[in-house]
Amino acid sequence: MTHPSRLATLLIYASCLLFSSIIQAETLRIAVAANFAETLRSIAKQFEENSEHKLVLVVGSTGKHYAQIRNGAPFDAFFAADRRRPEMLDQQGLMVPDSRFTYAVGRLALWSPDATQVDPAGEVLKKGSFRHLAIANPKLAPYGRAAQQLLQKHGLWQALQSRMVRGENIGQAFQFVKSGSAELGLVALSQIQRPGQPIPGSYWLVPGSLHTPIEQQAVLLRETAASRAFYNFFQSDRAKATIQGYGYGTPDAG
């Protein structure tokens, strides 16, 4: 039979452990570029399955997130769609020192839900057999800047101005195509590729030589046990396999 005082001590000890676990659990706010949102949701789910911490993803354009961070937005980490904004945060001392790293290399694709719309070489852009082409805003979104560079190299940037519909970010550009507001669009490969599934519709994978590399970097903005745990998990082999499954290259795999 357990002595009452011993039982009381055990209950107090158990309560302390439970309370300690509760106060140590954190909810992290993660700013993420629209193109990487679906991939990060998958990785966040994996992380939460093995951690007491929770993640809240705030999806938007890299340019807007950068401006919000400059103005003091309470994010714990920032997953950008380029390397320029993380580099600027590094130079300005607005990130955890030595936390900046390249997590993915993005791929641009010309895509349509119509299986007959886009040919394998992207000649549809020159033929002009469409009314609307969706792109992300080149001033805000790295994928929009890559789309502009592609069209400029083909001599089509000015010619297609009247047919372009611009999304604030690559997520909005993708929705224009998915909803039928535009017949085709220059989107992120990650938006149309899912692990183990065929890509729906028709698409042209744009050669990387036709635009500057879409090197995507991330930074920690606040150093806590929870943010460091997620930072470490994100660089695990499991997370890298998920990133590759969504159509991205990774620094160690190309």
From TrEMBL:
GO molecular function, one term: metal ion binding
Coiled-coil region list: none
BP term (GO), one: molybdate ion transport
Record Pfam families: SBP_bac_11
SUPFAM superfamilies from the UniProt entry: Periplasmic binding protein-like II (SSF53850)
UniProt xrefs under CDD domains: PBP2_AvModA
Subunit structure: The complex is composed of two ATP-binding proteins (ModC), two transmembrane proteins (ModB) and a solute-binding protein (ModA).
UniProt family annotation: Belongs to the bacterial solute-binding protein ModA family.
PANTHER family: MOLYBDATE-BINDING PERIPLASMIC PROTEIN, TUNGSTATE_MOLYBDATE_CHROMATE-BINDING PROTEIN MODA
UniProt-recorded name of the protein: Molybdate-binding periplasmic protein
Annotated organism of origin: endosymbiont of Tevnia jerichonana (vent Tica)
